[in-house]
Amino acid sequence: MKSLTCITTLFFIAAFFMACQTDQTSGTDSLTRARRILAEAPFIDGHNDLPWTIRNLEQTPMDVEAYDLRQRTPHDTDLERLRQGLVGAQFWSVFIPGEIKEQGYAKVQLEQIDIARRVIEKYPEALRLALTADDIEAAIKAGKIGSLLGMEGGHAIENSLGALRAFYRLGARYMTLTPNVTLDWADAVMDEPKHNGLTAFGKEVVREMNRLGMLVDLSHVTPKVMSDALEVTEAPVMFSHSSARALTDHLRNVPDEILAKLPENGGVVMVTFIPSFVSQEVKDWEDPLQKMLHGVPFDEAYRRITKEYTEKHQPTPMATLKHVADHIEHARQIAGVDHVGIGSDFWGSGDMPEGLEDVSKFPYLFAELIDRGWTDEDLKKLAGRNLLRVLRQAEDVAARLQKEIPPSTATIETLAVIAYHQPVTRAEIEEIRGVGISRGTLDILMEAGWVRPKGRRQTPGRPATWVTTEGFLDQFGLEALDDLPGVGELRAAGLLDAGRTSLTMNAEAEAGEDDTDTDLDPGPGPGLDLDPGEADEPAAETDTGIAPMIDEPPATPRETAPAVAGEQSSESPERGA
User: Fold this and answer.
1) First-to-last C-alpha distance (Å) of the chain
2) How far apart (Å, rounded) are the C-alpha atoms in residues 261 and 340?
3) What is the reported pTM?
4) Of 114, 339, 415, 489, most Cβ neighbours within 10 A?
């Protein structure tokens, strides 16, 4: 035993001196150094679509038993190559397309989670389910690959926060807000925008994800959604598989102005390997194909169209490992080294960049960065330490929020009436929640102009487009405003505006004229008694610190706002997914 201990000690001493020597060299020695770094700080990949590959096997679709990861698979992922790639943890994407609504989004999502969970259970010698940052480190310490689940598309929750919570309980630890299609509450960058960002319900989705500890993934969404989410979230965000728009002008990539916001938020952009995202030449070649594939589900027709186009348009340009390294370096330059990771997006396609053909090739990418002058410490952050930090911070935020607020009961039907969401501080929300009102009801009343946080006024110059009280009630099947949960408590607390008895439509503003008169008299309306009598003077502030809002028109409804320039696209909902 003593001799074995001596041998082991001598081995580590020798390894140390070899590592020191390797640190001072480059070229062929860079790969050795890269492997040492990844042994010390295991690599965490943000995105691999193995469950989708298994679902779409031609001979044995969805058959986890038939697709043996202990053998070399015909695609890009198996256990041996994961080991060669020194993968310490993997987010297995449980992707579902946005074009399969008729199949049932939630149904297909559950099937994909089932496939991923069965894969993890089938190989206990190699894979271990991970739900937290500590779980990842424990799995790595045990010699296993920490296996997490990432939902690729908020369409799976079918506009239900209860469904969101259920998917979290099943193991989902991030959710991409949209797939390649625009949802009822968020705009997808590869589809036509409808909401100018996140709707009120979309913001509530982000808040509930914060409360759960589920990472908000901003790949696939418009820059306006990215900005909205960054304004709302209390936890760091992630881009699970996106590259830099400044280098490759693909809509799915992240603009510099968003990358520059990551240090303040603490989030991470995980650079992807998808060829059309990292090579402008490949993207230009692929544009006509994406238009042909617009709206086509990922089935036999998709594969046939792709094959025919490729055969007719030779030679096919190739992305390379160096392209990916360029995007990583650009993200580091704009966002900072603390906010960059890797989300490969291997999906069994067989057309990944030269030098990064499968999951065994990750060390070669790190060797390239070593040759470009990256330090060991920076490479360790890129490998996984940045993502571990993001996970832990999200877990800390969730622990705090779960003590402060209950699960949200908001629905998209109730929150659909909200226009621009006025900023509300957490302290203000907590003051209002003291009278038992839900955040959803609070937002509606604030946006309607019936109540506002202390000291907050409407933004001058904003057009005043109002909805009628009658239309408001009809839209949501309400007999009276009191049907909204918490309104009775608000009125009892003296927080409703006694001077406003109705909402009326401002016809000039609706027609597009910029009516900036914030003292506009709403005039007669169908009438909705909120409090008997008239109030000539503003009501006094209550102990809650909330001041009634008198004669201030609500904001322009988001649903009528113009789309942000440059975000609309008729491109296909491609699987650069």
Assistant:
1) 53
2) 13
3) 0.72
4) 339
